[in-house]
Write a structure and sequence with these properties.
Helices cover 16% and strands 19% of the residues. It is of the alpha+beta class. A hairpin with a 6-residue loop joins strand 3 (57-59) and strand 4. The radius of gyration is 12 Å and the shape is globular. Residues 1-15 have low confidence and may be disordered.
């Protein structure tokens, strides 16, 4: 991802698997080579119980299922992980 102004990925509308979501998002973070605003600093395994509080993660209000990720104008650089398509 080169200087993407915005990246949005809609997630499956089915029941989410929180442990899989955490693995996918941590894999995505690992592939980011530049995060100038340190936006993904709270994306940690230690904070995985609170994934809906991670920067850029959008969840359904009551079910806490991830429905989208958004990173407007963060200057992230790296490779999009194929696992995001799951």
């Amino acid at each position: 991802m080169d200087e993407a102004e915005q990246f949005t990925s809609s997630m499956d509308d089915g029941v989410g698997d929180k442990s899989t979501d955490v693995e996918v998002f941590l894999s995505f973070k690992k592939a980011i080579k530049s995060d100038p605003a340190v936006s993904l600093s709270n994306w940690t395994a230690e904070n995985s119980e609170n994934i809906c509080s991670w920067y850029g993660i959008w969840c359904r209000k009551h079910s806490k299922i991830v429905v989208a990720i958004m990173f407007p104008k963060l200057g992230l650089e790296g490779t999009l992980s194929p696992s995001l398509g799951r």
